[in-house]
Amino acid sequence: MVILGSTGSIGVNTLEVAQRLGLDVEVLVAGKNIKLLNTQILKHKPKVVVVANKADVLKVNHNNVYFGEEAILKVIEDSTSDLVVNALVGFLGLAPTLTSLACGKKIALANKESLVACGAFIDIGKIQPIDSEHFGLWYLMQERPVEKMIITASGGAFRDWDIAKLQSATLADTQKHPNWSMGQKITIDSATMVNKMFELLEARWLFGEGNYDAIIETKSLIHALIDFKDGSTTAHFAHASMQLPIAFALKEKMQENILGHVDLLKVGSLEFKEITTDRYPVWQIKEALLKAPQRGVVVNAANEVAIEKFINKEIGFMDISKTIIQAFERFNELPKSVDDVFAIDKEVRKFIRID
How far is CA 158 from CA 133, 173, 180, 190, 192, in A? Predict the structure, then answer.
């Protein structure tokens, strides 16, 4: 397989599962964590390695190393692997998704932005999602009429904060996730609830038109629920580990134990909360976005630039959502092609940076 984003949490988990299942790794694509990459090279012996920056090439303990975004696309095209695990973060992951599909490869997709920005132009039949929420929905699907598909959210770092204090929240505050440790951007997205809105958009592209929603489940043990039209509801319980959806993406039939079962007696109780627009202002555009999911490219571009501004202390935490809503209200043209997606992305970024 080809693993894009090998040193991130999903990449690390993918390599663990691959080793467990006895699967070979042909290509590793990483960012700046060269120390971890070198450990992975020693252990998994890939044929080709790609890093983000030219300056890091000589630091990599491998004789076949490339760098940059174009190199990622080239190694995908040249690879003999049928499977690409795309765990890159951000809009950067879209071009590798499109290239993989053009090469006829199957994609185990953790790069949310691919479907969020370009879902209308992606062959869903070649996509296997490795988000816990989409895996949970897929796992629950039966041939019965569905009323609603629901995914869960942790609530992020500010789930229990005094709302009045949110405007003064710092970057360090956003990283204090209540349930687990993730990368910087996705942890900010969790705090704003942008991450969950993106997952609803992904679900819309993956499973088609329908009724989608999200709720907060504070222990992150339930990942998805389906309300069936007959009045029954099913829920997918599992410990918060990406290894289960990854295992199913790497090997279609899974008959061995991947995780320990959830012991409900030890859990004791579960708590559910509504996602409210006073704490998560971006949630106010959720319905409009689901009705016109092609506009995801606008939301994604605005979010990425707003996060840059927040990290650089140019705007406050709550201004991230305000920036997204402002862009969503301004840009309402639907892309008619992949080229339009890239053009709109560029236009929105320029607008937000100048503003």
Answer: 21, 8, 14, 9, 9
